[in-house]
Every structure is written in structure tokens, then in C-alpha cells.
Specification:
The complex is a heterodimer of chains A (about 350) and B (about 375). Chain A is α+β, with helices and mostly antiparallel strands. Chain A has 11 helices and 10 strands. Chain B is α+β, with helices and mostly antiparallel strands and about 375 residues long. In chain B, the strands form 2 sheets. Chain B has a 4-stranded mixed beta sheet, with helices on one face. The chains are: A alpha+beta (about 350), B alpha+beta (about 375). At the A-B interface, helix 6, helix 7, helix 8, helix 10 and helix 11 of A face helix 8, helix 9, helix 10 and helix 12 of B.
């Protein structure tokens, strides 16, 4: 997509999410109400097909276009698997398949594929209970399994999103093909996707806390005029800034690397950074908003709870940190600066 | 809802800058003097005229300045890469640091032709070093309250007052002093001017101020009826405040804000060995990820500046977060090494450097604008004041 088309798409999507993803919709999903109308409209806008080639009915956008949209979806707590479906569709199309309508998700875990069938278990699968199909990459094969052929144990997250454990018992596949993307790369793409959603959520947390501080009056003046609050919000801004800068840089690198690439250091670093600061962002925003922000009534928790859950999705700071640390330790002190300045694993 | 938009558009340093990096790296590999670890650690506070002259000979000081003043008219991003490489390799960049970073650009912007011709080529050769004469005993964060007075007299100014925390004044050639040339104390921003002060001027006394780590970087510079010629006024009389605030904004977001103690991180990698335990790897990796993120913020700000924008808030955020990172680093490293070091000797050596790093850490969030002053700037940017 050229610059203008992307800007237009993001603007349209922003307006749409503002209109249609209200507090009630997000709370409804937490109570187990699937927002079928919302999903239908999202599909009508073509958003889940943003990074699918035009000849396969998609919008022909790049990975970067998709990630920009998902950052935006994060800043609206869009409570449907738009991110998961968009990435799954991209992977299916790249493996020669044709994405189908309906919500999909990624089932990544210790799985085996043989004789056209899938076996094993994937934990913490986002939106497992509402997905029509599960997409995975095992070795060099991409496989799609319909929900009828999988067993889902619902384990909603503390953010109220319908995650679950998905078991495949020699499950028949709807589609399988040579994956354009390695299993390692699939995890990386999922991680940068989540990091961008975290950047969006972080942005929204900052905006929410800043706005609240200007409205809330105590001791006869808006609390934004108190230096204690100002400094807290400035610190919050610095944590949000790091999350955004890291995620955006990783998104750029992921896009430049394309599907084939693997071992993109900046994705590991960005997910580690986003996950590491999730707590500080949540803590500072809640502290600045007092009891009001701790209520279920307020929307702040839609974002802070997601940050707390998302930091573990597709690798926490411990997971990615370990990968980075092990590589840098192995390469030794002389390689440290060269690795860092080159945005790559030290070697 | 009006949302404060923070943007850090990812930016690639251009190929010329990356090519320069390769050259600088090769040069440093050959040229870096053997230094004790405390001096490597201190990097841009370590004074080495030989090293600065060698850099100058390569054309890497004042690299962005016009050729007629000894510069190379290269981009600000080339300079960014040189700065990064000096810090990434813990080079002793203290002699030329302030001159190249701050004083030279100030003279280029506001100085007279005579001042530029006299000074700038010497800076680019690595022969002329500067101190900053802003703070006073009663003027720290509140810089507008300076009391040092420069009273106009025939042919120049008679200066009386005291500057403090004047780094390197005992060995540098010049200091740029913020002084009151007209009006009264209490006039705040009005009536201030900047003077180019030769530190060998009679009636200037320089006394050491030793910091808590026992190091002599700072000085107290006292003017007692010191005569400063009129030709040493920088810019216009009364424009000092405007000039000094633009000087403070120079590269608030540069690599020195998060790489000042980079040496500790490299030492940590060394002491953890090639195959640390999983937990140690994870902690190391998280530190590396945080530093990388700061670099992405900083490079993004550099990119915006190169494209003609003035991302003041974003730049302030880099300094706030970067200096706090530098304070966390020795603490996290210390705890990690105490539980993971392979040998007692390694541990003892490392903990010695880490202890030094810990002692230096309070300075990071004070120098160049305290964290609290910066947060005030950010709060204004967020529309809170």
C-alpha cells in the first residue's frame, strides 16, 4: 500500500473502531458474548485480509501495513481475533492456500504433522473458544484445522479474552502446504504483532491518564496541575515511548526481512521491551487515576489487563531475553557493540 | 479526546554514516590507548589530548561544520555515528567532548566571524577544549537566576562572580560563561549574555571540586574583577537566555544519555562467560533489549531532526529513560554477578568496577537538566501545564 492508502485505511479503521468497539462490546466478550455483528463488519471492511494478495481476494498490503493496523486495533482493545486472523490468513495465502472467512487463530506449540494429520497440544491459544479454524506451522508445513476437528479447553485470560488449550488428536486438516515461513519465523511474526498491539494499548493508556488528570478536580483544581501527577505522567510517557519506538522498529525490520527471514533480533528485543514495561505502564497509569481507574466501570483496565496478558503471549521478556542473552554471551564482549549497533544477534 | 501523540518513526542511518562507522571502528581498534578500567568506564569524562588530536587528524571533530572553519560539511547523522562509536568502544573522548558537541555549534550559530575563525579550526584539530560556565552556587536548575555580573567598561566587561561544576576548567582552554550584563538580579531572562572566556585570563581562579568518587572533573571558577574584551561577547548583548536554551537542547537525546556507562554492560558479558545459566541470560538479554530500545528512540529522534522537525518532547524522554537505565544497569549487573560469576577473581574485579559505576550513577539524572526539570518539560508537552 502506498503511504496515502495506508493513512486512509488507518483513518477509516480508527473511526470504525471508535464507533463500534465501545466499552459494552469489550465487556460483553469478557462475559462470553461473541460480537458477531462486529466481526461481520470487520470482514466487510476486508481488514482480516489486509496482507493477503489481491489475486486471493485480499487488500494486497504488506506486513508493515498489517502491523500498523494492529497497533491501531490495540489502542481500541478490539476484542476479536483480528490480529490472529490477519496473520493466519497471510500465512495460509503464502503457503498456497486461500483464506476463508471467519475468525481464525494461531495454535503454536509442540505439534507433530504426519500423514496429513496433526497431533499434539497448544497452550494459551488466543481466542481458541471462538475461532473457526486453527493455523499452525510444524517444521516446513503449514496446516489448517477446523474447530470441529480440534478439542478446545477454554481458559479465558485475566483480560477476559477467550484463550484456551487446543488439542489435536491426529486431526484431519482442511488445508496443508509447504509453509513460506519457518516455525521460528511464525513465532517471531506473532511476537511483533503482539508488540505492536501493546504499543497501541500503551498509547491509549497514556492518553486516558492524561485526559483524566485534566478532568479530575481535587483540592479545587485539576490534578494535572499537581507536580506529583505531572511527573508520574511524564514517566509514564517515557515508558510508553520506549514501547512504541521498539515495536515500530521491529515492525519495520520484520517487514524488510519478509516472510523467509528468521532470527530477527529487533523482534526479540521489542517484545522483551514491551513486556518488561507493561507493568510500569499499568502501575503508573493506575496510580495517577486513583480508585476511579481501578473500577470495572472505567475503561482503563481494558488496556492494562491486556498489557498484563499480552506480555506473556508469544514469548515474555524472560523468553526473548534468554534468547538474546544466550546469543550475546556466546559471542562474547567484543561482539556486544557490533551486535547492538547492527540490530542483530551478536555473533 | 485530544491524545498526546508520541511518534518515533523508525529510521535507518544512511549508508554514508554506516560506511563511516566501519572506518571509525577500524581506527579505534588501532588507536585506542591502553587505559585503566576506571578511565575506560568514564569515556567522555576521560581527558586525552593525544586521542582527541588523532580524531581531529581524521577530520572527525566538527564534522558537520563548514569547510572554511575546518569542518567537513557532513551530516549530523555522521556525527551521531562517531559519537556512538566513541561510547560503544569506551574511548577517552573527554578533551574535545564539550567543544565538539556544544561550544563549537554555539559559536557557529551565534559567534562573530572573528570568534569562529579563531576557535573553530582549532576545535576540529582536537587542540582546543571547552568548559560550560552555566551553573553557580545559587543557580542550578534555576539557571535564569545567575548572579555573575559582567559590567560594561571601556573595551569590554569587568566580570565578578563564581561558576561551579565547571568540568575540565583546570585543563581546558575556554569556558562559555552565562553572565548578567544589564539589569538586576531578579530580571530573570532579560539582561543575560554569553561570554567566551579564556581560562588563563588574569583574576580568574580555578579550584577543584572533588566529586564523591574522589575524581577531579569539576571546578569552581571565580572571577574577581576579571577583564573580558568586548570581542568575546557571543551573539548580542541580552540574548544569553535564548542562546543558552538552544545550547541545552543540542542533542538531549544523543547516545551519551544511555551509553555513558556502556563499559559495565560489556564487562558484564565478559564476566558471565560464554554459557551463562538461563536466568542470567534472560536478565542480560533484557538489559540489552532495553538499551537497544533506547537506541531506536534516539535514532528515530535523530531522523526526525535530520528531516527538519524539532521533536523536543521525544528528545527529553530519551534522556529521562536513558539516564534511569544507566542507574539501573550497575545495580542489576551487581546482583547478577554476585550469584553467577564463574571465578572469585572475576567477581572481585567486576564488583570493583560496578561499585565505581554505582558511585557515579547519581550524576546521570542531574547533569544536563535534572530528571525533574525534564519531566516538567514533558508535562508541558503533554498539555498538563
Amino acid at each position: 500500500m502506498d503511504h496515502d492508502s495506508r493513512a486512509m485505511l488507518l483513518e477509516t479503521a480508527d473511526r470504525f473502531f471508535t464507533d463500534r468497539v465501545g466499552k459494552d462490546v469489550v465487556n460483553g466478550v469478557e462475559k462470553g458474548q461473541w460480537p458477531a455483528d462486529l466481526w461481520k463488519e470487520i470482514e466487510e471492511m476486508g481488514l482480516p485480509l489486509i496482507a493477503v494478495p489481491e489475486e486471493k481476494g485480499g487488500a494486497g498490503g504488506t506486513l508493515a501495513d498489517m502491523l500498523a493496523l494492529l497497533r491501531l486495533s490495540g489502542s481500541h482493545a478490539v476484542p476479536v481475533p483480528l490480529a490472529e486472523t490477519a496473520l493466519a490468513n497471510l500465512l495460509v495465502a503464502a503457503a498456497g492456500g486461500s483464506p476463508k472467512p471467519g475468525p481464525a487463530t494461531l495454535a503454536l506449540g509442540d505439534l507433530k504433522f504426519s500423514g496429513g494429520r496433526l497431533a499434539g497440544k497448544a497452550d494459551r491459544v488466543p481466542f481458541a473458544s471462538v475461532a473457526d479454524r486453527f493455523v499452525t506451522v510444524v517444521g516446513t508445513t503449514l496446516a489448517v484445522v477446523a474447530k470441529a476437528n480440534a478439542r478446545v479447553e477454554a481458559k479465558p485470560t485475566h483480560a477476559g479474552e477467550p484463550y484456551g488449550t487446543v488439542s489435536f488428536d491426529n486431526a484431519a486438516t482442511d488445508f496443508s502446504g509447504a509453509s513460506a515461513v519457518s516455525a521460528e519465523r511464525t513465532l517471531e511474526l506473532a511476537a511483533v504483532m503482539r508488540a505492536m498491539q501493546m504499543a497501541g494499548a500503551a498509547d491509549k493508556v497514556l492518553a486516558t491518564a492524561v485526559e483524566y488528570s485534566k478532568q479530575r478536580v481535587q483540592f479545587g483544581r485539576p490534578i494535572s496541575t499537581f507536580q506529583a501527577i505531572q511527573h508520574m505522567l511524564a514517566e509514564l510517557a517515557s515508558c510508553v515511548a520506549a514501547t512504541i519506538a521498539a515495536a515500530e522498529a521491529a515492525a519495520r525490520d520484520a517487514d524488510e526481512g519478509g516472510l523467509k527471514d528468521g532470527g530477527t533480533f529487533s523482534i526479540a528485543a521489542a517484545k522483551s521491551q514491551a513486556s518488561e514495561f507493561a507493568q510500569r505502564i499499568a502501575a503508573l497509569s493506575h496510580q495517577s487515576m486513583g480508585a476511579m481507574g481501578f473500577t470495572h466501570e472505567h475503561i482503563l483496565h481494558h488496556y492494562t489487563r491486556r498489557l498484563w496478558v499480552w506480555r506473556r503471549d508469544f514469548g515474555s521478556e524472560t523468553f526473548w531475553g534468554e534468547k538474546i542473552g544466550a546469543a550475546y554471551a556466546k559471542a562474547g564482549p567484543q561482539a556486544l557493540w557490533e551486535g547492538l549497533s547492527g540490530s542483530k544477534y551478536a555473533a | 479526546m485530544s491524545i498526546p501523540k508520541l511518534e518515533f518513526p523508525p529510521f535507518h542511518l544512511p549508508p554514508e554514516a554506516e560506511a563511516l562507522r566501519v572506518e571509525v571502528r577500524a581506527f579505534l581498534k588501532e588507536t585506542l590507548p591502553k587505559l585503566k578500567s576506571e578511565d575506560r568506564f568514564a569515556s567522555w569524562n576521560t581527558f586525552s589530548p593525544e586521542f582527541s588530536k588523532a580524531l581531529g587528524a581524521k577530520g572527525w571533530l566538527g564534522i558537520t561544520w563548514p569547510k572554511k572553519y575546518g569542518g567537513s560539511e557532513r551530516s549530523f547523522l555522521d556525527r551521531y555515528v562517531i559519537t556512538e562509536e566513541l561510547l560503544g568502544n569506551s574511548a577517552p573522548a573527554g578533551a574535545h567532548w564539550v567543544a565538539d558537541r556544544q561550544s563549537g555549534p554555539l559559536l557557529l550559530r551565534f559567534g562573530s566571524e572573528e570568534q569562529r575563525q579563531a576557535i573553530l579550526p582549532r576545535i576540529t584539530r582536537g587542540e582546543c577544549y571547552f568548559s560550560i560556565g552555566m551553573s553557580e552556587p545559587d543557580s542550578g536548575s534555576d539557571l535564569a537566576s545567575v548572579r555573575t555580573r559582567a559590567e560594561p567598561v571601556p573595551g569590554g566587561f569587568r566580570v565578578n562572580g563564581t561558576k561551579v561544576w565547571t568540568s575540565g576548567a583546570h585543563r581546558n582552554h575556554y569556558c562559555i560563561a552565562l553572565v548578567r550584563t544589564s539589569g538586576q538580579h531578579g530580571d530573570r531572562h532579560k539582561g543575560l549574555s554569553q561570554l567566551l572566556v579564556d581560562l588563563k585570563t588574569p583574576n580568574i581562579t580555578i579550584r577543584p571540586i572533588i566529586n564523591l568518587a574522589g575524581r577531579h572533573d569539576w571546578n569552581e571558577v571565580t572571577f574577581s574583577d576579571a577583564f573580558i574584551p568586548e570581542s568575546c561577547l557571543i551573539g548580542n548583548e541580552g540574548d544569553g537566555w535564548l542562546q543558552v536554551t538552544s545550547e541545552l537542547a543540542f542533542e538531549r537525546s544523543g547516545p551519551e544519555r544511555f551509553m555513558q556507562n556502556f563499559y559495565i554492560l560489556r564487562e558484564l558479558v565478559r564476566v558471565l562467560g560464554r554459557q551463562p545459566a538461563k536466568r542470567a541470560s534472560a536478565i542480560l538479554g533484557r538489559l540489552i533489549a532495553r538499551l537497544w530500545s533506547l537506541r531506536q528512540m534516539s535514532v528515530a529522534v535523530a531522523g526526525m531532526m535530520q528531516n527538519g522537525k524539532s521533536p523536543a518532547i521525544e528528545a527529553a524522554l530519551v534522556k529521562d529513560l536513558g539516564t534511569i537505565y544507566q542507574q539501573d544497569l550497575p545495580e542489576i549487573a551487581r546482583a547478577l554477578v554476585e550469584s553467577e560469576a564463574t571465578t572469585e577473581d572475576d567477581m572481585a574485579d567486576f564488583l570493583d568496577v560496578a561499585q565505581y559505576a554505582t558511585m557515579m550513577a547519581p550524576s546521570y539524572t542531574i547533569q544536563g537538566g535534572t530528571t525533574q526539570v525534564l519531566r516538567g518539560i514533558v508535562a508541558r508537552g503533554l498539555g498538563l501545564r
